């Protein structure tokens, strides 16, 4: 009889930046990223072996250094404190991205207002410390623009994440929880790589079980 084993849980992938995703989505993304990472490592190893002549009987030639296609911005390397998890902060929109940044609008809450906060570590995890401006938006109707991060493979969505910068891959988080809003829409919103604007009741989350900082409910799309 074939043994049926349970699917891997997110705890099997402690190195993955899962903070801020609903748990039912985190497991799927964790498995996909682990498989993709393994395939990438195998491809690099094979390319290096071919370059250096390993296994062919030829003398080994030093392999050229691997150059990243999207280097970090100047000054980003070596300055971050040790132990800072990836996927934290306000997010970074790469200048090499084919998707344009969010346009300037004076009828939406700027992401700079939402990401301007500090965090503290408790026995239960990392929790946000909201400033007075953010607390004042709690339980009020607000309008925000951003990029859709769908959680289901559909054309239109009533449940998704709205982020300050676009995704760079299917498994990558664009930034920390301060750079995204959990949206529960009253009217379905059609997916697009272009920015979308939604309006609804805004809530700040002081200790969300999924690590989210912001939520919008009864949201409707706005032109």
Walk me through this protein's architecture.
The protein has helices spanning 23-52, 111-115, 132-136; strands at residues 118-122, 125-129, 140-150, 156-163, 180-190, 196-204, 214-222. The protein is an alpha+beta fold and 223 residues long. A hairpin with a 2-residue loop joins β1 and β2 (125-129). The model is unreliable at 8-56 and 66-86 (pLDDT under 50).
Q: How would the blueprint of this fold be written?
A:
Elements: H1 23-52, H2 111-115, E1 118-122, E2 125-129, H3 132-136, E3 140-150, E4 156-163, E5 180-190, E6 196-204, E7 214-222
Parallel strand pairs: 5-7
Antiparallel strand pairs: 1-2, 3-4, 3-6, 4-5, 6-7
User: Taking all residues together, what is the mean pLDDT?
Assistant: 73
Order of helices and strands: HHEEHEEEEE
Q: How many helices?
A: 3
Shape call: globular
Helical residues, percent:
10-25%
Q: Which structural class is indicated by helix and strand composition?
A: alpha+beta
Cα-atom radius of gyration = 21 Å
Overall number of strands: 7
For the largest beta-sheet, the strand count, sense and barrel status come to: 5 strands, mixed, barrel
Distance between the termini: 58 Å
* Uncertain segments: 8-56, 66-86
* Widest β-sheet, arrangement of strands: 3-4-5-7-6
Q: What percent strand?
A: 25-35%
């Amino acid at each position: 009889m074939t043994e049926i084993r349970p699917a891997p849980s997110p705890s099997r992938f402690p190195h993955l930046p899962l903070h801020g995703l609903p748990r039912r989505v985190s497991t799927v993304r964790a498995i996909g990223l682990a498989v993709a990472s393994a395939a990438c490592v195998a491809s690099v190893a094979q390319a290096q072996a071919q370059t250096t002549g390993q296994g062919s009987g030829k003398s080994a030639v030093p392999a050229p250094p691997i150059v990243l296609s999207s280097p970090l911005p100047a000054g980003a390397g070596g300055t971050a404190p040790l132990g800072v998890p990836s996927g934290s902060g306000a997010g970074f929109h790469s200048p090499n991205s084919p998707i344009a940044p969010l346009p300037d609008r004076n009828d939406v809450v700027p992401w700079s207002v939402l990401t301007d906060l500090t965090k503290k570590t408790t026995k239960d995890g990392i929790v946000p410390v909201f400033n007075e401006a953010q607390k004042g938006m709690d339980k009020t109707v607000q309008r925000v623009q951003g990029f859709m991060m769908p959680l289901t493979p559909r054309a239109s969505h009533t449940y998704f994440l709205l982020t300050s910068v676009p995704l760079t891959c299917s498994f990558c988080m664009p930034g920390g929880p301060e750079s995204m809003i959990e949206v529960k829409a009253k009217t379905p919103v059609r997916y697009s790589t272009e920015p979308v604007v939604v309006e609804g009741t805004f809530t700040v989350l002081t200790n969300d079980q999924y690590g989210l900082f912001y939520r919008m409910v009864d949201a409707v799309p706005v032109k």
